[in-house]
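Could you please consider the sequence and fold appended to this message?
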Amino acid sequence: VVPVMEELFWRSFLMRWTDRRDFLSLPPQHSSAFAVLATSAVFALAHDLWLAGFVAGVVFALLYRTSGNLWYPILAHATANLALGLWVIEQRAGSFW
């Protein structure tokens, strides 16, 4: 659920809203580099490991921007969360969760 909700907010809404208040009229492929970087920076601030959050935010934003399909960043986000979750469990590194 988290990847779906976060991608709806960060990419589908905020990234396009940064460029145009009528965000639904802006195709994701027309989002600016500023919108990608700015929303990725704010996305990073919402995560403890801000550098990893920034890099992931840029990757998710570029997936959305190039494909125009929100399912690609949702699946990438879910895969990243799954990989992190499995690593946390295997390493018993609960502080990362």
Q: What stands out?
A: The mean pLDDT is 96. The chain is about 70% helix and 0% strand. Helices lie at 2-19, 33-45, 50-67, 71-91. The two ends are 16 Å apart (CA to CA).
